[in-house]
């Protein structure tokens, strides 16, 4: 029995040591740990208009900044890799990732089963969704169930669009007018429709919405709801090496406290944060 316990203890120690080693920053060992990317430039798909996750620095529009920009830059440095940003409107970035025109996509990409057929995910937070209206809330909107018969917008391909479409269907099933949904090519375009009076509301990621209304006093959040949807960073389907690179880098940030500091810096509530996990 004693021998068995000693063997079991040795196995547990070896396993813990291996896990710790796997999440260390070892940029000098890139050829050994990530041979498929040694000497290559990683292409990171990102929208320059998605604060606080990814956006152009107002003081230098050529430079990208934001929560996930800092996260992915740290992960690349941890692995010893060079990288460049593949910029575009959010709705066009997922198809680019699927077509292997980019190695990674950042910008709070929501995990969905249909997306998992084309991409793998490193998840770190639960998605919250906010209903944003013009200041004063002229239509007195207070929740998703109150959107029936109203006109709204969101990024065409994000979780908010899915939420609006689901609610619109519920409205019709309950004998109410469905939502008049005017999807936008990106979130900036959705907000322009709200500000010029074309729509009554925008549904946006809760963190992004909070950032937006702080900067634009003509807007306000009417309601925020936390969902069960998980979000994070996506890589091309079957790209196991890049999945490991990003997961390793984020786990280092999780363990050394960097991730918690970034969440606080960019206004992400600790209630939304989950332990780093991968889904393939």
Number of helices: 10
Shape: elongated
Q: Strand share of the residues?
A: 25-35%
Largest sheet: 9 strands, mixed
The low-confidence runs, each spanning 5 or more residues with pLDDT under 50, are 1-21
| Number of β-strand runs | 12
The topology string of helices and strands comes to HHEEEEHEHEHEEHEHEHEHHE
What is the mean predicted local confidence, pLDDT?
Answer: 90
- Distance between the terminal alpha carbons, to the nearest Å? 40 Å
Into which percent range does the helicity of residues fall? 25-40%
What gyration radius follows from the Cα positions, in whole Å? 21 Å
The helix/strand class is: alpha/beta
Summarize the model shown.
With 280 residues, the protein is an alpha/beta fold.
Q: What does this entry look like structurally?
A:
With 280 residues, the protein is α/β, with parallel strands linked by helices. It has ten helices and twelve strands. The protein has helices at 2-22, 30-33, 67-79, 90-98, 113-116, 159-173, 187-195, 206-215, 240-256, 258-265; strands spanning 41-46, 49-50, 54-57, 60-65, 82-87, 104-110, 119-134, 151-153, 180-181, 201-205, 219-236, 273-279. Strands 1, 5, 6, 7, 8, 9, 10, 11 and 12 form a nine-stranded mixed beta sheet that branches. α6 links the parallel β8 (151-153) and β9. α3 crosses α9 (240-256). It is elongated, with a radius of gyration of 21 Å. Mean pLDDT is 90; it is low at 1-21.
Features:
disordered N terminus, 3-stranded antiparallel beta sheet, alpha/beta, 280 residues, 9-stranded mixed beta sheet, elongated
């Amino acid at each position: 029995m004693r021998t068995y316990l000693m063997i079991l203890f040795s196995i547990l120690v070896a396993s813990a040591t291996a896990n710790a080693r796997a999440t260390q920053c070892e940029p000098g060992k890139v050829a050994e740990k990530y041979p498929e990317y040694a000497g290559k430039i990683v292409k990171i798909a990102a929208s320059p208009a998605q604060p606080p996750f990814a956006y152009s620095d107002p003081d230098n529009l050529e430079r990208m900044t934001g929560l996930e920009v800092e996260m992915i830059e740290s992960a690349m440095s941890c692995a010893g890799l060079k990288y460049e940003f593949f910029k575009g409107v959010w709705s066009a970035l997922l198809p680019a990732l699927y077509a292997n025109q980019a190695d990674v996509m950042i910008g709070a990409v929501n995990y969905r089963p249909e997306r998992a057929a084309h991409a793998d995910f490193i998840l770190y937070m639960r998605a919250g969704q906010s209903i944003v209206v013009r200041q004063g809330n002229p239509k007195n909107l207070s929740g998703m169930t109150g959107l029936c018969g109203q006109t709204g917008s969101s990024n065409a391909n994000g979780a908010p669009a899915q939420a609006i479409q689901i609610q619109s269907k519920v409205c019709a099933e309950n004998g109410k007018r469905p939502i008049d949904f005017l999807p936008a090519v990106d979130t900036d375009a959705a907000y322009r429709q709200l500000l010029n009076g074309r729509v009554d509301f925008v549904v946006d990621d809760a963190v992004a919405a909070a950032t937006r209304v702080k900067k634009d006093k003509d807007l306000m959040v009417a309601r925020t709801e936390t969902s069960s949807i998980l979000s994070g960073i996506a890589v091309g389907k079957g790209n196991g090496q890049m999945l490991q690179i990003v997961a390793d880098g984020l786990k280092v940030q999780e363990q050394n406290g960097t991730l918690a500091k970034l969440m606080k810096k960019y206004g992400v509530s600790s209630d939304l944060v989950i332990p780093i996990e991968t889904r393939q």
